[in-house]
Amino acid sequence: MVKKERIDEWTTRRTFNIGGKEYREYEYKHDDGSVSYEIYTDAGKKVGWSIQDKFRESAQEARERAWDRAMGRRKD
Q1: pLDDT tens digits, residue range 14-55?
Q2: Residue 68: CB partners within 8 Å, gap ≥ 6?
Q3: Which of 12, 13, 43, 54 is 20 to 30 A from 60, comparing alpha carbons?
Q4: Strands 11-18, 2-6: parallel, antiparallel or unpaired by DSSP?
Q5: Which pLDDT belongs to residue 76?
Q6: What DSSP character marks residue 56?
């Protein structure tokens, strides 16, 4: 289940239930057109993040990198 809600004109929050755990993904749009992502557990712990380098990658690639960090598949 994914619940998507618009917080303001710059921020979108999506809530996911993965393996019985709830994760909240925040997508922030910046003035320069880039996007950053932060992922939190239901307890409020930040477990994943990424900032798009808009000259080298798509927003989807930045989002995937944030989720890789959140799920422990990436350590940098």
Answers
A1: 999 999 999 999 999 998 989 999 999 999 999 999 999 989
A2: 48, 74
A3: 43
A4: antiparallel
A5: 73
A6: T
Residue 38 to residue 28: CA distance in whole angstroms: 8
| Tokens 């990198």, residue located | 65
**Span 4-23, average pLDDT:** 90
Residue 59 and residue 27: Cα distance in Å, rounded?
10
Report the half-sphere exposure of 13 (CA within 13 A, side-chain side). 10
Task: Report residue 1's pLDDT band, with 50, 70 and 90 as the boundaries.
Answer: low
Run of H or E including 41: strand 35-41
Closest CA to 62 of 74, 75, 71, 50: 50
Which residue shows structure tokens 């709830």?
A: 22
Q: Give the whole-angstrom CA distance, residue 42 versus residue 40.
A: 7
